[in-house]
C-alpha cells in the first residue's frame, strides 16, 4: 500500500455509495472534479428524498395493517440525514486528516517504524464485511417479527431492509470513526515503543562509552549519538502533537454524529426496556409471539450496548496511549545526562501534561470508561423505574 487512502479504499467506496461526502477517487482536472462533486451532491439529495418517501409509504402500509411504525426509527433517520450536510461541510477537514496521517507515516518510516498499511487494509476490508453481515443478521432478526404478522417472506425481507436502513448508515459512520481512532492509537503505541528503544540504546551507549572513554574518536561518536538522539526526540514530539491534533480534528468531524448517537442510545434504551418489560409481564399473549418479541428486542439492545462499550473502550485506549507517552519519556530522562536533551524531553512532558488528549461529544462530555459507567447507571435507573411503574398493556 502506497498511502493510507489506498488502505481505506473499500471503506471509502462503501461510504461513497451510502451517500456520505467521501470521494474515493481523485481527479487532476478541477472542472471534472467540480462536475462530479455536483453530480454526487445531487445523487445524495435524490436518494434520500426517495428513501424518505419510501419510509412514509411503509408507515402508511403498517398502519393500514394495524401495526405501529417504530417511533425510534424517526430519530435514526433524522440523525442519518443530519450527518450528510455535516460530512459535506467537513469533507475537506477529513481529507486533510488522511493526508496528515500519510505524511506522519512517512516520517515514522524514515525513523525505522513501519506504516502498517497492509494491516489497515485487512482491518478495513473486515470492517466492511462485518458491517454487511451485521446488517443481514439484524434485518433477519426483525424479519422474524414481520413474518409472525404477515406470514410472507417477501414482506419479512423488504420491511426490515427499509426500516433499518438509516440505523445501518449511522452504524457505518460509527465504525469509520472507530477504525480511524484505532489506527491513531496504534501510532501512539509505536511512538511509545520507539522511545523505549531509545532508552535501551542509551544504556548500551553508556556501557560502550565507559569502556572506551580514553579515545577521542569514541568521544566524537558519543557526541554525534547525542545529537542524533535529540533530533529523534524532537521529531517524535512533533509527530505526537500532530497525532493529537488529528484526533481533535476527527473529533470535530465525527463529534456531532457521536453526540447525537448518545442521545439516540438513551432514547432507544428507554424505549426498548419499557416495551420489553411490558411483553414479559403480559401473560395472556401466545408463548411463541412473546419469544419472538423478546428475542428481537434483546438482540437490538445487545447490539446497541456492545457498540457503545466498544466505542468508549477505543476512546479510552487512544487517550491512555497518548498520555502514557510521558511515562516513557520520564524513564528516558533517568538515563540521559545531556542537559539539552533533558530540557527537550521535559518540554515534551510538560506539553502532554498541559493538554492531555480527551475525546468529547461536542465538549459536553468525554468518552471513556467514566462515561460508560454513567451510561450503566442510567440503564440501571431505567430498569428500576420501569419495574416500579405499573405497565400499560399497549404493545402490539
From TrEMBL:
The chain crosses the membrane at residues 6-27, 39-57, 69-90, 120-137, 157-184, 262-280, 292-314, 364-387. It is a multi-pass membrane protein. Keywords: Cell membrane, Membrane, Receptor, Transducer, Transmembrane, Transmembrane helix. The keyword Cell membrane applies. One of its GO terms (cellular component) is axon. It is found in: Cell membrane. It holds the Pfam family 7tm_7. Belongs to the insect chemoreceptor superfamily. Gustatory receptor (GR) family. This is Gustatory receptor.
Amino acid at each position: 500500500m502506497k498511502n493510507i487512502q489506498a488502505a481505506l479504499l473499500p471503506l471509502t467506496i462503501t461510504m461513497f455509495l451510502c451517500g456520505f461526502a467521501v470521494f474515493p477517487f481523485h481527479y487532476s482536472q478541477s472542472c471534472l472534479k467540480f462536475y462530479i462533486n455536483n453530480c454526487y451532491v445531487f445523487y445524495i439529495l435524490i436518494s434520500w428524498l426517495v428513501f424518505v418517501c419510501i419510509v412514509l409509504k411503509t408507515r402508511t402500509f403498517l398502519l393500514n395493517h394495524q401495526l405501529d411504525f417504530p417511533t425510534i426509527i424517526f430519530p435514526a433517520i433524522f440523525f442519518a440525514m443530519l450527518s450528510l450536510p455535516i460530512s459535506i461541510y467537513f469533507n475537506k477537514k477529513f481529507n486533510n486528516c488522511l493526508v496528515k496521517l500519510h505524511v506522519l507515516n512517512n516520517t515514522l518510516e524514515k525513523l525505522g517504524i513501519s506504516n502498517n498499511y497492509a494491516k489497515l487494509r485487512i482491518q478495513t476490508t473486515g470492517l466492511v464485511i462485518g458491517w454487511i453481515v451485521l446488517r443481514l443478521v439484524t434485518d433477519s432478526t426483525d424479519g422474524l417479527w414481520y413474518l409472525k404478522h404477515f406470514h410472507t417472506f417477501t414482506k419479512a425481507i423488504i420491511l426490515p431492509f427499509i426500516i433499518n436502513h438509516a440505523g445501518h448508515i449511522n452504524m457505518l459512520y460509527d465504525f469509520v470513526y472507530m477504525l480511524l481512532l484505532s489506527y491513531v492509537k496504534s501510532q501512539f503505541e509505536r511512538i511509545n515503543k520507539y522511545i523505549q528503544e531509545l532508552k535501551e540504546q542509551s544504556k548500551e551507549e553508556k556501557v560502550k562509552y565507559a569502556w572506551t572513554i580514553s579515545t577521542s574518536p569514541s568521544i566524537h561518536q558519543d557526541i554525534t549519538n547525542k545529537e542524533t538522539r535529540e533530533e529523534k526526540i524532537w521529531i517524535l514530539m512533533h509527530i505526537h502533537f500532530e497525532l493529537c491534533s488529528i484526533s481533535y480534528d476527527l473529533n470535530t468531524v465525527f463529534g456531532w454524529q457521536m453526540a447525537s448517537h448518545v442521545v439516540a442510545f438513551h432514547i432507544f434504551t428507554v424505549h426498548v426496556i419499557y416495551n420489553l418489560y411490558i411483553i414479559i409481564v403480559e401473560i395472556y399473549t401466545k408463548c411463541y409471539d412473546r419469544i419472538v418479541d423478546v428475542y428481537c428486542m434483546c438482540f437490538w439492545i445487545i447490539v446497541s450496548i456492545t457498540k457503545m462499550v466498544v466505542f468508549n473502550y477505543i476512546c479510552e485506549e487512544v487517550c491512555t496511549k497518548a498520555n502514557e507517552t510521558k511515562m516513557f519519556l520520564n524513564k528516558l530522562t533517568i538515563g540521559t545526562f545531556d542537559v539539552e536533551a533533558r530540557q527537550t524531553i521535559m518540554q515534551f512532558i510538560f506539553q502532554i501534561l498541559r493538554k492531555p488528549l480527551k475525546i468529547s461529544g461536542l465538549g459536553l462530555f468525554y468518552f471513556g470508561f467514566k462515561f460508560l459507567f454513567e451510561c450503566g447507571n442510567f440503564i440501571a435507573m431505567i430498569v428500576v423505574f420501569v419495574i416500579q411503574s405499573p405497565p400499560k398493556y399497549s404493545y402490539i
